[in-house]
Design a protein that fits this description.
Aspartate Aminotransferase, domain 2; 38% helix; Aspartate Aminotransferase, domain 1; alpha/beta; binds pyridoxal-5'-phosphate; 14 helices; 2 domains; single chain; 14 strands
Length: 431
């Protein structure tokens, strides 16, 4: 016997690797089996056993309007009566493309795909095809989906060529990816001195969210813009998380820095599977069938996904929602920080708008190396305490928490109170 979630997990593990369709969900990093979710509304989730949680994962980023937003539900419902997929052009995808180009400053053309992985993989292929070069520069701790070229994370230091971050990634391909430390301009400069003329692109999360939230130094992103231009390489912003989250036009609008290509995902699907990549017209025109660089998708531009994305972006486009989101983000994360400090715990809180992370360390977190200083044992204990109080966090010390417009003042105060109790019970224990 066990809970419904436990029984489901036992069944799942027999037939799905780790019992999950995406690794972090399994909860290995926190040593806990995952609740199986049955239902969601607003900022709440309910598991198969009827337990209610306040959701700070938001499906890992898409749910900025909260779950089951009436406009999104209506849009999907209206479309579903007309069929679910045609494999042919539709008005919906044109409308969504126009809206994206209107909102994201650097984008002149866009191609829809089905996930962030596909968006980043396709943008890298396009950059390689367009420049006729093969090397890619990325940053440690940034995640760009699981395409072979982008799984490389090890090999810090300019001279070190990347090694595969995963068995199965061909060595020859991994060697074409340089992984540098985020915010380190010297490393970038040295990498370009040595490999600049072979470098197709620099791909970066302008505000990394996949090592926990890390803020870019003001000069770092503009330096990337300058140096890529000088060497004839492309700058790719992976805004799969930051797009439509940190502002209506993403991080590029927030910082006023225009990349050549942008990857989108998560929010543009309104909770359905979507990704997109786009940017400068002269580059995007190289994509088939206008150009010779191939990329395709049976379900790309899927009408249900387009309808959900369109309904979501229409609300975000007005921009009215962002000052309110900022207010709630500030209230939550400064409340958590305050609660930790008043229990005598050392934490670092990094936040932009509604995305933020709390690291259990007393040193500034500015890159992957400093993020890894965070005390994972303490995070594990904090995670368990919070889950017991009905607060659903990402089950990893190196993930962002996301809030939505459905997280109201009351829920945020309840969360801070739960954190206060959790910190009290952590205090004085050894991890
Ligand atoms: C989630 C994410 C991806 C991958 O998107 P999927 O839809 O999971 O394939 C790529 N880049 C960033 C920055 C992400 O956060």
């Amino acid at each position: 016997m066990g809970t419904k979630s436990e029984i489901l997990f036992q069944r799942a593990r027999k037939i799905i690797p780790g019992g999950v369709n995406s690794p972090v969900r399994a909860g290995k990093a926190v040593g806990m089996d995952p609740p199986f979710i049955a239902r969601a509304e607003g900022c709440f989730l309910w598991d198969a056993d009827g337990n209610q949680y306040v959701d700070y994962v938001g499906s890992w980023g898409p749910m900025i309007l909260g779950h089951s937003h009436p406009d999104v539900v209506q849009a999907i419902g209206d479309q579903i009566k007309n069929g679910t997929s045609y494999g042919a052009p539709t008005a919906l995808e044109v409308e969504l493309a126009e809206l994206i180009i209107d909102m994201v400053p650097s984008m002149e053309m866009v191609r829809m795909v089905n996930s962030g992985t596909e968006a980043a993989m396709s943008a890298v292929r396009l950059a390689r095809g367009y420049t006729g070069r093969e090397m890619i520069i990325k940053f440690e701790g940034c995640y760009h989906g699981h395409a072979d070229s982008l799984l490389v994370s090890a090999g810090s230091g300019v001279a070190t060529l990347g090694i595969p971050g995963s068995p199965g990634v061909p060595k020859d391909l991994a060697q074409k990816t340089l992984s540098l430390s985020f915010n380190n301009m010297d490393e970038v400069r040295r990498a370009f001195e040595q490999y600049g003329s072979q470098t197709a692109a620099v791909i970066v999360e302008p505000i990394p969210g996949n090592m926990g939230v890390v803020l870019p130094n003001t000069e770092f992103l503009s330096m990337l813009r300058r140096i890529t231009k000088d060497y004839g390489s492309l700058l790719i912003f992976d805004e799969v998380i930051t797009g439509f989250r940190v502002s209506a036009g993403g991080a590029q609008e927030l910082f006023g820095i225009m990349p050549d290509l942008t990857c989108l995902g998560k929010i543009i699907g309104g909770g359905l599977p979507v990704g997109a990549y786009g940017g400068r017209k002269d580059i995007m025109e190289r994509v088939a069938p206008d150009g010779d660089i191939y990329q395709a998708g049976t379900l790309s531009g899927n009408p249900l996904a387009m309808a959900a994305g369109l309904a979501t972006l229409k609300i975000l486009q007005k921009g009215m929602i962002y000052p309110e989101l900022e207010k709630r983000g500030r209230a939550l994360f400064s409340g958590l920080e305050d609660a930790a400090r008043s229990s005598g715990l050392k934490v670092v809180v990094n936040r932009v708008g509604t995305m933020g992370s709390m690291f259990f360390t007393d040193k500034a977190v500015t890159d992957f190396a400093s993020a890894k200083k965070s005390h994972t044992g303490m995070f594990r204990a904090y995670y368990a305490e919070m889950l017991n109080r009905g607060i659903y966090l990402a089950p990893s010390a190196f993930e962002a928490s996301f809030i939505s417009i459905a997280h109201d003042e009351e829920v945020i105060q309840k969360t801070i109170e739960s954190a206060r109790e959790s910190f009290r019970s952590l205090k004085g224990k050894v991890y």
